[in-house]
Amino acid sequence: MSDPSGFTRVTANRFPAGTFTPSPQPSRPLPMLAAQTRLELVLLLRNGEQLLLTMLIPISLLIGFAVLPIGDLGESRTNAIVPGILALAIMSTAFTGQAIAVGFDRRYGALKRLGATALPKWAIIGGKSCAVVLVVCLQMVLLVAIGVALGWRPSLAGLALAVPAVALGTVAFAAMGLFIGGWLRAEIVLALANILWFALAGVGSLVIAARLYGEEFPGLAHAFARITPSGALVESLAMAFDGAADVTGYAVLAAWAAACAFGAFRTFRWV
């Protein structure tokens, strides 16, 4: 069909399907997420600093506190420290590692370029989150195996009760990492994430001290630790291995996760 100017207007596809190969099509959501997760996982596992933070430090602390006579940790040193070490590992991966990685992805323009590709933004964030979940799972398996080798004997019910605490703790700390990493400048993120790592680890250790010393430990300090994400996670894990569900700890972790996710949603920047 020709218009008044004399040009021919194409009104239908003149070529049957299959004429040209390859025939590119949009990928499905699941393969996109899987590919981005694999990329983020490889980048994380190839980063020496990340491995130091997520694997070597928690494993070294677990073995060191279990073997060396450091402090009074009760009859079973391993039983006393395993909940704290698991919480530290989750915090290192989901919070500090995530915050620093996102901050420097923004600084070097990697996140901006990724955001300009055909890959949806949900897939980018989802890939980072799934990589964190996989690393946390690997950490839990390794640390539990090392703890068992050192004499720790958790019950199956205790391990099952620990799963919700690990899941909520991972979500809460990952949301914190995305909040800080996606909001502040990379230089500030690096300093702040490391400072918060030490501060949260210290607060988490208050819960261990409170469990060891009982009524001799100041109740106000224990109550303060319980409302922080690290303290709530340590208490939830410790109670799980004792065979009880820490509903208060779950609620505190869920509240931190919701607040930090809202903050990340409102402040996250791609540049």
Automatic annotation (TrEMBL):
Residues 1-29 are annotated as: Disordered. The chain crosses the membrane at residues 51-68, 80-104, 125-150, 156-181, 188-210, 247-265. Keywords: Membrane, Transmembrane, Transmembrane helix. GO terms for cellular component: membrane. It comes from the Bacteria. Residues 40-189 form the ABC-2 type transporter transmembrane domain. It is found in: Membrane. The keyword 4Fe-4S does not apply. GO terms for molecular function: ABC-type transporter activity. It is a multi-pass membrane protein. The keyword tRNA-binding does not apply. This is Putative ABC transporter membrane protein. It comes from Hoyosella subflava (strain DSM 45089 / JCM 17490 / NBRC 109087 / DQS3-9A1) (Amycolicicoccus subflavus).
